[in-house]
Design goal:
Rossmann fold, 15 helices, alpha/beta, 38% helix, 381 residues, 13 strands, 2 domains
Length: 381
Amino acid sequence: MTTPHLLHVFSTFVPAGPQVRVAKLLAAFGGEFRHSIVAMDGVTTARELLLPELDVVFLDAPPKAGSFATAVRMRGLLRRERPDLLLTYNFGAIDSVLAARTLGQGRVVHHEDGFLPDEVQGFKRRRIWLRRIALGGAQVVVISRNLERIARELWKLDESRVHFIANGIEVERFATARGNGEHGNPELRAQLGIPRDSIVVGAVGHLRPEKNLPRLLAAVAVAQPAANLHLLLLGDGPERAALTYLRGQLDLNERVDFVGEIRDVETWFARAGLVVHASRREGFPNAVLEAMAMGAPVICTNCRSGPSDIIEDRVNGRLIAVDDVDALAGAMTELIENPRFRLGLAAKALKVRDSFEQNMIMDRWSAVLLGPRATSQRGFD
């Protein structure tokens, strides 16, 4: 029996939420499938997340040339590869969904994690219509309840085709005791020059514009006179040079460190007294979920996609309005100056383990991906 072929299409394959989730899925399914991955922009730095023993091939993307022309070129790729299942990720891969629909054969599972940066304040009419046209024949996976509502009400998708599947936590990995993240870790503090009495604040994510890190640095500058904190930025990306410059402009060189890309995020969460997520747009933030699973107190901006599915403000974390520097600074100051409140939020945060355990989430993915077996249908011809 031939191993089913899954073709994954991303706008980019960098170490971000959808890519991390796919790496976990591929590892969970092991050798049950062979996989091809297309990054429409040609960037594939997240390939390091994939287990080396997996059968994964990276394909060259056709040149981008507008939705219609790109869809025509993707038709050729689909005909050549003949995947048993096409998986597409977010609006940047919508041209591939259009291509598949015009071919009229094969199964498509489309994933939506959130919105593009220019949709933070409102939706683009063209994108609404493109989703309505392209996604009508696909199974659509969304990672938050708000996206589920949008898919039904705004994109007019049939309820039977929309599947809410949240991100999952590897509970055993993140159940490790945090230790004394506030004033411990003498080796780390000596290495980075962090004062013994400072609260370490961690922020995890690819350094790109939507992570809103200039606002976080501005909030640190506002909070610092009252709150004794030290910020660690965990991750790398195109915004690093600009953020390094801003750090100097805000006189934060002694209070902010760039750690770079990390693989053992749980080790760093164990070193933090507080975790902050300042994004302007977000679907269902892995970093927030993982930090909460370790019992880290969390502050997160209340993007309209998914954080409110995880956090109840002032119960198991803090939700702050997007772009409100003063509110973010105030929340950091309050949690740093009020250990009892901070530890109370952390204790309640641990309950996310009960609702988002990885194996339970993987069962839901299996039901969608393996539904009618891909091998029982013709491919894309």
